[in-house]
Amino acid sequence: MTKRHVSLPAEADEGVTAFIEQVDARLSSDEDTCEVVRETLVDLFGDRDAYERWQAGGDVTPAERVRLQGYDPCNATLESEYYAEKDEDRYTRSKHLQWLWRQFDATPMADNIAFALRFRQMLANHLFADAGDDLRLFKGITFTYGHNIEIGDNTVVHDDVHLDDRGKLTIGDRVSISDSAHVYSHDHDVVDQTHVDNYHTIIDDDARVTYDSMISAGCRVGRNAVVGAKATVQGDVPDHHIAVGSPARSIRVKPGWESVADPVEDKLTNRADERRVEFDLPDDLDVFDEFQRDLTPPDGVDAPDAE
To answer: InterPro entries attached here (predicted)?
Structure first.
């Protein structure tokens, strides 16, 4: 089944185009990104009068002040900001752009598909390491950083998908990722939860990752492969295969592709160690253990190495 073409009325399209081009031009300039994000959100939320009154020294309630301060990403923190291994030089701008993306998705305009897809495509061009053409990025998508994502042409990512790029995430051309899927590029040690390993996770051209499924860190979903709904992928899905279940296993080759596909096997092969993304932490990093757990094993039992 194909889709039909839908467009905004000419006047509405003119307004959308002018707004997106203005924000794009400002983000492409030497202007401070924090200021661009703040000014854009103030206007998107219709708070210009209150913001200017506050800036002029006028009276605002504590709630108004918090709201008006919140348009500025420099007045906020994101979860990924606390990660010890993050790239400080790249993170600052990525954080500002993430803040604009997330707050835009909290506006009524985020449900206007013809507007929102074009706006997120523009933001992806600035945020991602590489953003292809004709992306369809729907509402509620979240990232770790954004700047470790490479995504190809004509790919669709549906509502409430999490793209974890704490390591590296590569998504090919014409990929479809359905609602509520989670794609990871980092993992935690089973004994010491604070020990993190990062990986390169790959979803190859023409693959489909369907509803509420999870792709574990370091896995590859092969070209033209399908991951079934609610599947938990813990190894590589071969090209042209259909994988389902938790843990996922290949159950068949897509009809018509048998002559070029590998045979179906009992389990998926995990090659995450080949895709490990190494990182170094600064010697002077001030770290803390948020859990403060005692990881000492019972007497006479040796603790495994954190690998």
So the answer is: Hexapeptide_acetyltransf, Trimer_LpxA-like_sf
